[in-house]
Amino acid sequence: MGKFSFEKLDVWQKSKDFTVKIYQITSEFPPTEKFGLVTQLRRASISVSSNLAEGSSRTSNKDQARFYIMAYSSAVEILNQLIISKDLDFLSEEVYKELRSEIEHVTSMINRLHKATDNY
User: Fold this and answer.
1) 12, 53 Cβ separation under 8 angstroms
2) pLDDT score of 120
3) What is the pLDDT along the chain (120 residues), one digit of tens a residue?
4) 3-class DSSP state for residue 87?
5) Of 21, 26, 79, 75, which Cα lies nearest the Cα of 50?
6) Per 3-state DSSP, what percentage of the chain is helix, strand, and coil (rounded to 5)?
7) What Å distances lie between residue 120 and 25, 58, 60, 65, CA to CA?
8) What backbone phi and psi angles, to 5 degrees, belong to 80?
9) How far apart are CA 48 and CA 73, in angstroms?
10) Are 52 and 11 in contact (CB under 8 A)?
11) Phi-psi category of 89—alpha, beta or left, where left has phi over 0 and alpha has psi -120 to 50?
């Protein structure tokens, strides 16, 4: 079975793995957050990898760049939601720092991908 181009991107693989981690961690959030932070975090994390995948399929650099910007924006949205989750004591300091480090790494990778696309 062949791979699509997005599956070969390190940033897509990391963002996909991050999404799995978000699903695992949010499954431990209070039931009252089922339609709040849990849903928001999950949707935003899926949005990062989905926009990377969709952007990689676009034929123009301008289209690709637009989707990479949306992926970056979703990653920043996740960071905001993680900060709130920590402030509400839904995340320990240790878990928060680990997730923050991962999202910072992903956003850095997205920036590099965007710049590479923007230079063509």
Assistant:
1) yes
2) 54
3) 888 999 999 999 999 999 999 999 999 999 999 999 999 999 999 999 999 999 999 888 889 999 999 999 999 999 999 999 999 999 999 999 999 999 999 999 999 999 888 765
4) helix
5) 75
6) 80, 0, 20
7) 39, 14, 10, 11
8) -55, -45
9) 8
10) yes
11) left
Quick one: which of 115, 36, 39, 45 has its CA closest to 76? 45
Tell me, yes or no, if the pTM score tops 0.85.
yes
Tokens 């928001």 correspond to 40
Q: 107: which residues sit within 8 A by CB, 6+ positions away?
A: 72, 75, 76
Rounded to an integer, what distance in angstroms lies between the CA atom of residue 33 and that of residue 92? 16
Nearest-angstrom CA–CA distance, 56 and 46: 16
H-run or E-run covering 54 = helix 37-57
Complete domains list, the chain, with CATH: 8-118 (1.20.1440.60)
- The rounded distance, in Å, linking the Cα atoms of 120 and 116 is 7
